[in-house]
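$ ./design --mode recover --in tokens.txt
reading tokens...
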């Protein structure tokens, strides 16, 4: 089984001083899991903020993701070493293949093997995938074994509930990490979510995050505002009832926000 914290801080789209401030604020507020990626172009800033925070490395859980340009056997390990330098650490806790990128010229077998090699070299404690559909997850399992796939990080929100893919992952014992759980903020204005929030004396963001947590997913919301970072954390203590969960279940509308041409495979 994977050992992935339930609540983390995402850094997608945050650059420069903005990401330094977000990570600094997050660490001050008690976040101990930080999620970044090579393509975010902010690993060095994340590393800088962590170094300045005084939080011990052993108390942190760091995730990064290998970008498609670095999938070949020759490039993957060196690219991860470069990420480690930027993050100012000897190893990350989790490294993911960012997108399956089926037509970029590197076979799944090659990049999964290279990722397993990175783990065996001690560059990352755990490995996993991101944005993989059922078929590609099966192929990844065939290469490294399901016990070596710590998570599949996928877009999930009350508007995109991915029940078929989630059901498969849970049946295989592969942990689910939800990104974009708030659907770029779209669910925050949803009347159903707002009504539940009022009923529970919570914010709409807390309701959406608590929904994902109750389903057993890890979440990695990001924010540039300290008060939102603090408020999001409180989702961990928000207990939604069965009625709340049923109302949110009915919001499914296949509302996908992210599916880059050439990087995504056919979604389930």
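writing sequence...
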């Amino acid at each position: 089984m994977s050992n992935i914290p339930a609540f983390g801080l995402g850094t997608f789209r945050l650059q420069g001083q903005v990401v330094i401030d977000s990570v600094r604020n997050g660490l001050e507020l008690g976040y101990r899991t930080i999620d970044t990626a090579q393509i975010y172009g902010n690993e060095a800033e994340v590393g800088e903020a962590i170094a300045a925070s005084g939080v011990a490395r052993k108390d942190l859980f760091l995730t990064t993701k290998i970008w498609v340009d670095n999938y070949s056997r020759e490039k993957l390990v060196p690219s991860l070493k470069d990420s480690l330098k930027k993050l100012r650490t000897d190893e990350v806790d989790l490294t993911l293949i960012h997108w399956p990128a089926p037509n970029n010229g590197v076979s799944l077998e090659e990049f999964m093997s290279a990722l397993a090699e990175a783990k065996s070299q001690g560059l990352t404690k755990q490995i996993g995938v991101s944005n993989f559909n059922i078929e590609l997850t099966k192929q990844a399992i065939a290469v490294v074994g399901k016990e070596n796939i710590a998570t599949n990080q996928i877009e999930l929100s009350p508007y995109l509930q991915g029940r078929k893919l989630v059901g498969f992952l849970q049946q295989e014992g592969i942990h689910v990490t939800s990104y974009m759980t708030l659907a770029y903020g779209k669910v925050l204005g949803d009347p159903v979510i707002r009504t539940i929030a009022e009923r529970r004396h919570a914010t709409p963001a807390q309701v959406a995050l608590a929904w994902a947590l109750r389903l057993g997913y890890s979440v990695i919301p990001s924010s540039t505002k300290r008060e939102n970072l603090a408020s999001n954390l409180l989702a961990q203590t928000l207990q939604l009832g069965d009625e709340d969960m049923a109302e949110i279940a009915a919001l499914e509308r296949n509302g996908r926000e992210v599916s880059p041409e050439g990087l995504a495979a056919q979604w389930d």
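exit 0
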